Amino acid sequence: MQIFKSVIATAALVLSVSCSNKTNQDKTVLAVSIEPQRQILEQLAGPGFDVVTILGQGADPENFDPSTSQRLALDNADIYFPTGVLPFEKTLKESLGSNTAYVPTIGETELIYGNHGHGHGTEACGHHHEMAVDPHYWSSFEGAGNIASIMYKTLSEEYPDIKDGLTERYTQFNDSLAELRDKVSETLGKAKRRTFAVWHPSLSYFAREFALEQLPLGVEGKDLSAKALAEAIDHAKADSVEVFFFQPGIDSRQAEIMSQGIGSRLVSVNLLDYFWQDQLKLIADEIAGAQ
C-alpha cells in the first residue's frame, strides 16, 4: 500500500467530505463513513494522521448517495474504514481506487435483524423491518469496542512505526470505554421501567447490551395513517412507555404527535454524533429517569 499519496485540493475536501475543514499534506489520510468512527480513529491514530468522514453532516445514512467528488476523496486515503452495513458503502467500494484498503469495522458484532422491538411494534412497523438489519451497532459499547479493535489491528499492521504509541492509546481507549460502560450500567440499574420507545429501531444493540426493551412505533421514511398512529399510541400506553427517543431530520415529525398522545417525554438523540459517548449517557439517564 502506498503510504503517502498526493493530497487533493483543500477546497475539494471542504466541499465534498464532512468534518475535514483543513488537510495537512504532511499527514497520512484515513477515511471513515460516520462521525463516531472518526472520533474513535482519531483517538487511536494520533497526530500523524488526518481523518475524514464521508457521510455529510445531517445526512440520512439510509438514503445518502455519495457524489463523484466524495468518491474521489477516498482515493486520497490509505485506508477506508466503512461500517460495513450502510447502503452507500457498497457504491463506494465498487469505485474505490486500488491504493485504498477497504476495512469494515463490524468485527465480531452480531448484527440484529427483523423487528428489533421483540414483537412490540405495530403491524406496519413489524412488516417494514421484518428482515432489515439495524445498522447502528456503534450505538453500544460492544460495537464501539469492536470498531476500535479492528482499527487497532489494521493500523498496527500497516504502520508498525507507531505501534508503541498506538498500543498505549488503544489501552487508554479501552479503559475509558469500560469505565463509561460501568457508569451507564449503574445508571440503568436505577430504572424501574426498562421499556423505551423509538420511531424506528435504532437502539437495538444498546437494548441488547443492557437487557432493555425497545419499542419501535413508526416506519422509517414514511408517515403513518391515522389508524396506525392511533394503534401505535395505544400500544405504547399499554407498555407504560415514559420516554420516546427520536432523531431529528431522520425520523418522522409524527414522532412528536405520537409522544404527545402517549404522554411520554420526547428526547432528541443523534446516533451519528462525534461525541457518541455523550449520547449513550443521555439515553441511559433518560431511561433511568422514566419512573
Question: Describe it for me?
Answer:
This protein has 291 residues and is of the alpha/beta class. The protein folds into 2 domains: 10-109 and 134-178, Rossmann fold (3-Layer(aba) Sandwich); 192-289, Rossmann fold (3-Layer(aba) Sandwich), CATH 3.40.50.1980. It is built from 11 helices and 10 strands. The chain has helices spanning 10-16, 35-45, 68-74, 87-94, 123-128, 141-158, 163-188, 204-209, 226-238, 254-262, 276-289; strands spanning 28-32, 49-53, 79-81, 101-102, 112-113, 133-134, 195-198, 213-216, 243-246, 265-268. The strands form 3 sheets. The protein has a 4-stranded parallel sheet, with helices on one face. A 4-stranded parallel sheet has the order 8-7-9-10, sandwiched between helices. Strands 5-6 form a two-stranded antiparallel sheet. Mean pLDDT is 85; it is low at 1-23 and 116-130.
Number of strand elements:
10
End-to-end C-alpha gap:
55 Å
Overall pLDDT, averaged?
85
Which regions are unreliable across 5 or more consecutive residues at pLDDT < 50?
1-23, 116-130
> Per CATH, what is the topology of the largest domain?
Rossmann fold
> What percentage of amino acids are in beta strands?
5-15%
> What letter string, H or E per element, gives the SSE order?
HEHEHEHEEHEHHEHEHEHEH
> Which CATH class of the largest domain?
Alpha Beta
What is the strand arrangement across the widest sheet? Answer: 2-1-3-4
Assembly state of the chains shown: single chain
Rg, Cα atoms, Å: 20 Å
Q: What is the name of the CATH superfamily of the largest domain?
A: Nitrogenase molybdenum iron protein domain
Counting DSSP H or I runs of 4 or more residues, the number of helices is: 11
